[in-house]
Prior knowledge:
Two copies of one chain form a homodimer. Chain A contains six helices and four strands, in the order E-H-H-H-E-E-H-H-H-E. By secondary structure, the first copy, chain A, is mainly alpha-helical. In chain A, strands 1-4 form a two-stranded antiparallel sheet. In chain A, helix 1 crosses helix 3, helix 1 (5-19) runs antiparallel to helix 4 (76-84) and helix 4 packs across helix 5 (101-117). Chain A is elongated, with a radius of gyration of 16 Å.
Amino acid sequence: MKISTKGRYGLTIMISLAKHYGEGPIPLRKIAAEYDLSEAYLEQLVGPLRNSGLVKSVRGAYGGYMLTRGPKEISAGDVIKVLEGPIQPVEGIEDEAQPQRELWIRIRDAVKNVLETTSIDDLANQKDDNNENYMFYI
Amino acid sequence: MKISTKGRYGLTIMISLAKHYGEGPIPLRKIAAEYDLSEAYLEQLVGPLRNSGLVKSVRGAYGGYMLTRGPKEISAGDVIKVLEGPIQPVEGIEDEAQPQRELWIRIRDAVKNVLETTSIDDLANQKDDNNENYMFYI
DNA sequence: TCCATTCCCGACAAATATGCTATACTATTT
DNA sequence: AAATAGTATAGCATATTTGTCGGGAATGGA
């Protein structure tokens, strides 16, 4: 049970955009350099973020990405959902009454609650530091 | 962010043992048949459970596995931790003050709380049914 | 107009994880 | 001794993860 770099880097992008909110488009090159990540990989991750409407892009020189809403209006769950898949299982959990059902629901709801009540703005205003490359195991 | 069959089948084993608690050793063959799972695969999963002291084995004819403690004294977290990896990240989260740090801690604590307050006995006394093979996405 | 910058798109690939199967044991009970 | 059952290890097909690479297309500035 883990959150992969996909979700983590995705949050990194969103947090960086939140920090520069209102400053116009921010290029991925800058974010990649700032956090020492692969720009090409970030490009892959930002695709879904754009398609889901969390960020918008400006092409060309001096282009980049920017949040479509204020950092307070975007939750960590919005980002994780797009990059790591749905928080709620697509099928099975509602109709199947397996013994573990109650446990999965409890866990899902607990995680959901945290993800939905934590905004990108909250995270952007944490103390900043470098971005380690380890996998986070829950 | 998902829980794989490893953790799910592991819980299935533990729940089955909880249901037959006090009846002596239960062979994996029986559990595998009851839930229509591969016995050989369950054998792989029960290894870590034995090594971590959650179950003990009795070899030979009429042998099998049994819980080392009462079902109320074993939490879902005990099982998940063994099969899916540590709930707490091994390194990094404490000393690295990355922006997401607070979020990971909040999620970890929320999940941890659910896993630790839900006992195997709780799950064994849920309404029983078959065990679907889908992946559970959080 | 040309060019550097930047987003956009799709293919590919190495590494790891998942979900098993198979084999060959060893230990214990009857 | 034979049957039952656990133990250990290896292999393997598939999927996912974590990227890389190459080529476009749009844009702004010189």
